[in-house]
């Protein structure tokens, strides 16, 4: 009787392990990123809807990204796109934390 019970237990365990071993379908881990400069075909520093047309994802997001509704994407607007790679948005060192992580602004509590 013990061996029959042990066999059922082993069968149940092997079934559970086998069911868990199935892998989900492959998904794209990293979507392609797009840089601003190649999309700005005429080089005027902004992307028109016409320039965006070869990229259907950008066309879909265009209206939402164009926050000032001038029918162009500036580098700042383009950088908000989830598929944006390199942009022309300059780095602003005044917004980055300093090496001391702001410790110079902490009150002296050692007294």
Protein model, in words:
With 111 residues, the chain is mainly alpha-helical. The protein has a domain of 55 residues: Recoverin, domain 1 (Orthogonal Bundle). It has 5 helices and 2 strands, in the order ααβααβα. The protein has a two-stranded antiparallel ribbon. The longest helix is centred in the N-terminal third of the chain and has 19 residues. About 5% of the residues have low confidence.
Which descriptor suits the 3D outline? flat
CATH topology assignment of one domain: Recoverin, domain 1
Gyration radius, in Å: 28 Å
Largest sheet: 2 strands, antiparallel
**What is the H/E order?**
HHEHHEH
The level 1 CATH classification of one domain is Mainly Alpha
The stretches of 5 or more residues where confidence is low (pLDDT under 50) are 23-27
Structural class: mainly alpha
Total number of strands: 2
What do the pLDDT scores average to? 75
Helix content: 25-40%
Beta-strand share of residues:
under 5%
* Widest sheet: strand ordering: 1-2
Compute the number of helices: 5
How far apart the termini lie comes to 78 Å
CATH architecture tag of one domain: Orthogonal Bundle
Characteristic terms for this protein:
two-stranded antiparallel ribbon; Recoverin, domain 1; 111 residues; 5 helices; mainly alpha
